[in-house]
Structures are given as C-alpha cells and as structure tokens.
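G., the chain you wanted modeled:
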Amino acid sequence: MKRYFSVLLLLLTWLTSPAQSSFIVGDYNIRYNNPEDAKKGAAWADRLPHICDMVNYEGWDIFCAQEVLDDQLQDLLKGLDGYDHIGVGRIDGKKAGEYAPILYRKSRMRCISNGNFWLSETPDVVGSKGWDADQRRICTWGLFEDKSTKWQFWVFNLHLDHVGWVARRESAKLVLTRIEEMCDGKPYILTGDFNVDQDDEIYGILVESGKLVDTHDVAKHRMAKNGTINSFKTERYTKSRIDHIFVSPDFTTHGYGILTYHYWAPAKEGEKEYKPHVLSDHYPVEVRLELPRYRAPQDWAQYGNYEKKNSETKKPEVVFMGNSITSNWYRFHPEFFHENNYAGRGISGQVTAQMLARFRSDVIDLKPDKVVILAGTNDIAMNQGYVSIEHIFENIVSMAELAVHNDIEVVLCSVLPADRFSWSWEISSERAKASIKELNDLLRTYAKENDLEYADYYSAMADENLALKKEYQQDAVHPNKAGYLVMEEIIQAILKK
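Predicted structure as tokens:
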C-alpha cells in the first residue's frame, strides 16, 4: 500500500508541477560578404567555417542574423546541422539585398507562420525605404512552436539603419506597434543590430515601453566583459552594446553572454607565425531563456486576446472569425474593417476547437448582424495534433448553429488553397490539397442545404496545381495584400446583398 501511495504522490507532483522548457537564442551580425574584407584577413570563406562551428557547438535553437546575403545564407544552411530558415532579401522581397533571417533547429522548433515588413512609412510595400534611412531595412518575423512542449512564441529580427536617426526612432515605434498587433498574448522575442547602444534615446523607447525587457539586465548569470562591436580588431574594448536581445516580461533569462570567440590563422600566407582573428566585426549575443510550459494552456482558447477590445467595441455589422489569415487581413488592410464597421477576431495558430470555445465572447456577445467564419487551415496542419476532417467540419457547424440560434446571419468560407505548411513538413502536398478539398466540399454542401451563404475564396485563388496563386501569396498559406483584395471583392458581394 505504501508503494502505491508513493507512486500516486509522484504522479500528482508531476501533473501539478509547472513543467519548464529552456532554449537558446543567438543574435549575430555576421558581416556581409565584402570582397574588401579579404585584404584585412577577414574573407567570408575564412570566417564561415568558424561561425558554423560556433553555432553548432553552442546549439542555438533560434539563430537571428543580420547582413546576410543570399550566398551567405546558403553557405550557413550547408554548414549548420539541421537548420531551416525564414526571411527574404530586403530589396525585392526575394533574394536581392541583405536578409535579416531567422534560422531555427528543425528538431526542436516548428515555424507556424512567418512574414516580413519593411521599416518605413509603408511597411507592407516591398523594398520601401523609410524616413531619413540610408538603406532599405527589413524586419523578419515568425511564430514558433517548441515541439516538445507545444507552447508558442514570436520572434522578430531586424537591422536598424546606421545613418538615419529618425529612421531608427520611427522603426523602433513601428516594431512596438506590430508586436502589440500581432502577438495575440503570446510571448515574444526581439533581436537585431539596432545601431544604438544602451545609453541611446532610441534604446530607451524600447525598454521604457513596458513591452520589452533587455535580457542583459535581467539575466541570472551574465558573461559580458565587452560590448558587441569590434571592427575586426581582436584587441578592441568597448562597453557599447548595439546588438540586443529583448523579450516580453514573461520570459525568464537564465544566462546572457557576449561571445568573444577568435580563431587562429597564419599572419601572412606561407608564414608559420599565427595570429588571432575575430569571426565578424560584431560579437554574437547568446541568451538562455525559459518559459513555463503551463502558460500555453492557461488560456487555451485565448479568451483574453480580445477581451479589452470587445469591451470597447460598439455593435459591429459583421464579425470576421478566424485564424492568422483573418488577423493578417486587418493588418494588411485595416481600412476595410473600419470603413464598413467590421470587427476582426482572428488569432494566429488557432484551430476550430479554440474558435468554438471563444465564439460566444468574440462573436455572439458583440451582437453583430452577420458572422464570417474562415477556419480549418490549422486543423489540417495539425497545430494541436491530429483531428479528422469530420470533426473539423463539426466544429465549424457548431459555430454556425450558435450564430443562427442567436439571430446572426452566417457566411461560411472555403479554406484557402495550400500545397504545403512550412511549419508541418510531415504533411505531404497531396494530403494537404486533398484535405482542403474534402473540407470545402462538406462546407459548401452544408451551406446549400441550410440556406447559408458560402464564400468561395478557393476557386478564385487556386492555381492549376491547387496551390495558392503566387501573385496572391505571402507564403504558401497566407495571402498578401493582392490576395486580400480578391477576398474582399468576393465577401463584399455577399455581405452587401
């Protein structure tokens, strides 16, 4: 009996204890591949293997980099063990110009969604340059999930302009705004080469916002005997930290380090005398972060995400219920919602069961005339594990029935086309396309049999391979602004009848 009691006590302790998960984030300006650097003994080909050795050794789960040209990105992906990446070139939104990429260990992290915005007055315009900036500047963002614990967090990575003071100030404000708009109550990390140190006014804008904590200041253990800039000089000392890792206040920072790694090479070609070299003109920053695993299910349906906004919202004509496709819609084109008295209630990463749970607070209690339900993508992508198409369909039907019962007109939407989910690589293209078609067939039939409106985005946005048309996509799943304009035309034709 005593043995069974001990086992039970152990089980109860395990179930009630806040399981923890720690991971490592590295931020590093690797220095762009400048042929002139070879004259200083700092050629990219010489530095590359040592950078890869360092990252592999340190085991960064998230690696945020700056000044990365496309050839350097490919070199890093070849030299690093088991990493994937997100990010685009800042000039054309493809491969031209420097990236601010986020690389991640595939064995540990899953990227759920990702995108970019430019640090300018028109952040969603590809290649736009802002204010008094000398260069185009970009911010890369991603929503990640720890595969072992299933909790999620956001990462933002940028490189502020080195010349324009106004550009740096306004870019800092823009990033804070985007964090507030996008993060849906989830924890977040902001990394980058900010070109301002800890004594600068713009640094103050970030840390005094109440949204960000400098990991340097709150780390339980710190190894930072130098600043982060070295100008390729091994002997240079500075207190200035211009490369930073900020986090939301809910993170615990166990360790913070500025890594002053060197490698040794011949002083001159053919000579036996060796001298030290730094790996870049910056030193990397490394932090060890922890967040209790129980935070994710604490508000599983994320009731709190729109709680404040709901209390301030007067009766909307229409509520748009959905996931990141709906939340991004508001971000890309807020005027569409404001001018028509529409309310957006999308939450990134959500499955239909979560939407159903919050349907009363985020839809019914607002007493709209109509609700537009766009859901199912994340279920098919298995964001919360496997769920059958029938059960996805049943969750959507339950939302529709709740709305009808409360005298709210329903518009059911087709799931958008997608041939892959970057965050769920195990789901084949064939399976993704077949699942979307099956669910859409069920939704279309249900709408017809129950005299509900059906918004067929799929037919207008699918290409010949049943993928999202390239001209309409931000990535394989999420529309760009052109895609949302197509969706607006379709939905407005229904809503304005």
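The first strand starts at residue 20 and ends at 29.

Shout if anything looks off.
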